[in-house]
Amino acid sequence: MKKRSLLFMLGTVMMVSLAGCSSGGSKPAETPAKTEAAKTEAAKTEAAKGEESKTEAAKAEGNQAEAGGDSAGAFKPTKDVNFVVGFDAGGSADIPARIVAKYMSQYAGVNITVSNVVGSSGRVAANQVRSTDPDGYTLLHVPVGYYMQAALGNADFTYEDFEPVTMWCDSWVGLVVRADAPYSTYEEFIAAAKENPGTIKVGSVSGTLPQLATLAIVDKEGVEFNMVDIGSNNKATELLGKRIDAYIDGVGQFKQYVDSGDFKCLMAFAHENTEIPGYEGLPSAESLGYTDFDYLLQSFGMWAPKGTDPAAVEYYADLVKQAAENPDCIAELNALGYGARFDTPADYAKNCENVLEGTKKAVQGLLQ
Length: 368
Hints:
The structure is a single chain. By secondary structure, the chain is an alpha/beta fold. The protein folds into 2 domains: 73-171 and 299-367, 3-Layer(aba) Sandwich (D-Maltodextrin-Binding Protein, domain 2); 173-294, Periplasmic binding protein-like II (D-Maltodextrin-Binding Protein, domain 2, 3-Layer(aba) Sandwich). It contains 12 helices and 11 strands. Strand 1 (81-85), helix 3 and strand 2 (112-116) form a beta-alpha-beta unit. Helix 3 (94-108) crosses helix 10 (310-324) and helix 5 (145-152) packs across helix 12 (345-367). The longest helix has 37 residues, at 32-68. It is globular. 41% of the residues are buried. Residues 1-40 and 47-72 have low confidence and may be disordered.
């Protein structure tokens, strides 16, 4: 099998006004003692007012921080925020986005509204956000597929064309087969592939992360699969109908079939100390001898249009942090096979750089 052909399939000041009052009649002249006493009393009154103002301001600042994090004083949205997802509603990218957006909205005090802009594997959405006014009211859902598309030359943008905000959800891709498959472990699956080169049909979609993960197995194990490009067809349906023998996808996307007993997951591209919700004890890629596979981790990120106020970037990252620490949000994500996640904007920007470089390196290596 030629590796090149495989890849081809691939954002108080309180004003106090003091008014003087006058009287139409004349007043007796005040004695110096009375005048001095009046001045002293007035000074005390003004001091008390000043302290009261400081207390109220502190309360207001505390309320803002509680609602929107440490950066709330610098930026706080006053209208709904558009969180653009480049894939269909109800899909593996959309569902966790709606969960996290719901909890972000609770802390923001405005709605973080998910909108689906579908086309070209998410590139239509990315280009729409890239051309949007960087006013702090638009966010982009970032799948790891963007890095692969850039590495393959299919996307004309990278993270450098946006403002990286944070990572907001962990996901992983795993290898799944039917429950009645003759192999129950990853090792048995690889042994069968070696004994019968080119006969195991592995479904994939060209230019996606799962396809690159499939090629990583081919490269590491020295096996040959019958790679079946299933296009827009549902992978689970293809496997249930026995038109393919296996496929790689996000573990959250096929979890219902594993839970129902129709499928079994043989491994996931994850580090050895990773606990994947709902897949306790599942062999990790690292435990199976894989190295340098961070480019295959399917965590979801968030970008804002280039030029977005750094205070807005910090604000939204802090909203995600609060959501990621909320037990209810964690439980909702875990129930679907996802993990809550938060990175600082600086750490996330470095992560974007590393993943892009790792993906480019992997693609180049598979082309050699």
